[in-house]
Specification:
Layout (H helix, E strand, L loop, with lengths): L1 H22 L2 E5 L7 H12 L3 E7 L35 E3 L6 E4 L3 H17 L5 E8 L11 H11 L4 E6 L15 H22 L11 E7 L13 E3 L8 E6 L6 H5 L8 E6 L19 H6 L3 E7 L6 H10 L7
Parallel strand pairs: 1-2, 1-5, 2-4, 5-6, 6-7, 8-11
Antiparallel strand pairs: 3-4, 7-11, 9-10
Length: about 350
């Protein structure tokens, strides 16, 4: 009887192992905040704990707001200053890895440069193929609506999608620049990571049930996911999701100020200056005289859903093509030009 019980238990364990292997993904993590960010480290640990094969390829420094910038034809020399978290000193190679983990890599360049290093060099060495999934983030600060084109987090996802790889951009309302793996299992970084892991596993289960074996997400698509700030004192503990559109609503409307000192946001961030520069008009803030900000009160827009404490999920595509209706309207305005 004992032998049969042991045999049965062994068969169940073997079945579970096969199931877990079938669901395991090769995942490339990247961001625009830096490879030492506590948020990317917590997600890395959480994904590995679920049996996925994961590598990090992210910038050496915080490069928020870099969009899709790349330093073409410029060799990447040694670090001229320590990395964001100080784990790699100045003078070390500009492309390297964390001394404590051979699967964590950095690039002294823009976010997209670090993504491409992960895709073109690291993934080939690690798996002999492209990753099954790219996750960009979790970012320190939400990327919603009209601010998305300026986001390295968002553009990393677009570049991956255009390479034919499913991608998820993840951003959060948590803006503190913490470094390294959190030591508290209940840390907010792990709570955010658990939301991302749950989302991935839901997609995997639904793909299995529908016998979809070709791609994690539909070809040419990805997701822009925004998690509101955990703020239990004001009744927000993000748990529920909302299917959204990107929209134009955002918590950070970029505006050019003739004097940065005239921007309340610049003053609050410690960037007040009599010199000109780009700052933000925060949600609910007042625009400078003569500046007209775009209004978007659609409850299905990302930022508005986040305001209601929902985790927003917006399907995105890599190539910003116009809708069929807009394409027809444009052609009507161009009627009569020579065409083939």
């Amino acid at each position: 009887m004992l032998k049969k019980t042991v045999l049965r238990a062994g068969c169940v364990l073997a079945t579970l192992l096969v199931a877990n292997q079938a669901l395991a993904l090769n995942i490339l993590l990247t961001n625009d905040d830096g490879f030492e960010s506590a948020q990317i480290r917590a997600l890395y640990a959480s994904l590995e704990a679920r049996g996925h094969s994961v590598v990090i390829s992210a910038p050496a420094q915080n490069h928020s707001g870099s969009g899709g910038a790349m330093n073409f034809l410029q060799p990447i020399g040694p670090l001229t200053r320590p990395t964001r978290g100080g784990t790699v000193p100045a003078g070390e190679p500009g492309v390297g890895r964390d001394r404590s983990d051979p699967d964590i890599h950095y690039v002294n360049g823009t976010p997209v440069m670090s993504l491409l290093y992960g895709l073109d060099v690291i993934a080939s060495r690690k798996w002999g193929a492209a990753p099954d999934l790219v996750i960009s983030g979790p970012n320190e600060g939400n990327n919603q609506g009209m601010i998305n084109p300026a986001s390295g987090t968002f553009n990393n996802a677009l570049f991956a999608i255009n390479r034919g790889i499913p991608a998820i951009a993840v951003s959060t309302g948590e803006v503190a620049q913490k470094n390294g793996l959190p030591t508290d299992p209940g840390a907010t970084e792990f709570r955010i990571a658990s939301l991302v892991v749950a989302l991935i596993e839901r997609i995997e289960r639904n793909n299995e049930r529908a016998h979809r074996r070709t791609s994690f997400l539909p070809p040419g698509t990805g997701l822009n996911v925004n998690v509101p700030k955990f703020d239990p004192a004001h009744g927000c503990t993000p748990e529920k999701y909302h299917f959204t559109r990107v929209g134009t609503a955002t918590a950070y409307q970029p505006v050019f100020f003739e004097k940065l000192s005239e921007s309340p946001a610049a003053v609050s961030f410690g960037a007040a200056s009599p010199l000109p520069g780009i700052s933000f008009v925060l949600a609910g803030g007042k625009a400078p005289a003569g500046v007209r900000l775009v209004e978007d009160d659609d409850p299905d827009s990302e930022a508005n859903a986040n305001q209601e404490c929902f985790i927003s999920i917006s399907p995105i595509q890599g190539v910003p093509e116009a809708s069929a209706a807009n394409a027809r309207a444009v052609r009507a305005r161009l009627r009569g030009i020579p065409t083939k």
